[in-house]
Write a sequence for this structure.
């Protein structure tokens, strides 16, 4: 079987701003949610059987305690923010396993789910659907791959190294040295991407770098690496078959009606009928 792990927060943002390009700023209350659900159904129609969607129930996480300038929910438009929780409710109602994260981030859930799924011998491949560079650290040869729908790319370990200059295991070290504007930490002053790539390929992880290279910045580099390292210890499921889609729940009809999108119910029922 192939396991598909989806970055629900990214997909919600993608659909919200994608719809903005043609709705003249008149955001539908559930527009982005509906877009995500149709996207998931399309995957199921294309024979995806085992799926899980990770979401940020809140934006902040334990990383904000480690670095106060780490990303927060500040600046997220209200029209988008108020679709976070309805997305989680809608996914569950449609029969999709969803992981709403609070202490951890959605990225940690994806990393943990990939770790659990790849340990199961019944799983042929794990596909992580997100363009987020953080998730590149989860790629394992061609068994755990990252699917970047935006770039039209499927990245195995070789592709990750080609894109970033380092193997997947060193992605947290690379981000620690060069920084990540999206997550709110600056990296180490004076070290650019090419320099960081050269150091990591020569010496290995930050812990192995000669002390003279980082000097007084060593502790900060290790802190940033901790921020960049995704957790893989979230116990999201105990058996891979918990991720098998078995059709929408009985309550999905009412929810699709509430969202004003009866096509969702028709589409979900049609694909569920083929499971029998």
């Amino acid at each position: 079987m192939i396991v598909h792990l989806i970055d629900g927060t990214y997909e919600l943002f993608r659909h919200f701003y994608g719809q903005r390009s043609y709705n003249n700023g008149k955001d539908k209350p559930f527009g982005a949610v509906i877009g995500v659900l149709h996207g998931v159904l399309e995957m199921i129609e294309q024979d995806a059987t085992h799926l899980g969607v990770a979401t940020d129930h809140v934006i902040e996480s334990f990383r904000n305690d480690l670095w106060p300038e780490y990303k927060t929910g500040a600046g997220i438009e209200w029209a988008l923010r108020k679709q976070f929780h309805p997305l989680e409710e809608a996914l569950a109602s449609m029969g999709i396993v969803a992981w709403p994260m609070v202490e951890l981030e959605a990225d940690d859930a994806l990393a943990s789910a990939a770790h659990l799924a790849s340990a199961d011998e019944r799983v042929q491949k794990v596909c992580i659907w997100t363009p987020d560079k953080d998730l590149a650290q989860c790629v394992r040869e061609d068994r755990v791959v990252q699917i970047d729908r935006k770039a039209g790319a499927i990245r195995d370990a070789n592709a990750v190294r080609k894109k970033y200059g380092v193997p997947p295991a060193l992605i947290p070290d690379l981000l620690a040295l060069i920084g990540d504007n999206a997550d709110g930490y600056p990296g180490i002053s004076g070290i650019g991407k090419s320099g960081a790539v050269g150091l990591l390929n020569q010496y290995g992880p930050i812990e192995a770098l000669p002390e003279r290279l980082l000097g007084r910045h060593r502790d900060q580099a290790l802190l940033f690496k901790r921020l960049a390292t995704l957790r893989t210890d979230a116990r999201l499921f105990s058996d891979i078959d918990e991720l098998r889609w078995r059709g929408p729940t009985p309550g999905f009809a009412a929810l699709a009606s509430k969202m004003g999108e009866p096509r969702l119910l028709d589409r979900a029922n049609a694909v569920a009928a083929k499971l029998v």
Q: What stands out?
A: The beta strands are 2-7, 50-56, 97-101, 125-129, 144-148, 153-155. The CA atoms of residues 85 and 120 lie 31 Å apart. The mean pLDDT is 95. Residues 31-45 form the longest helix (15 residues).
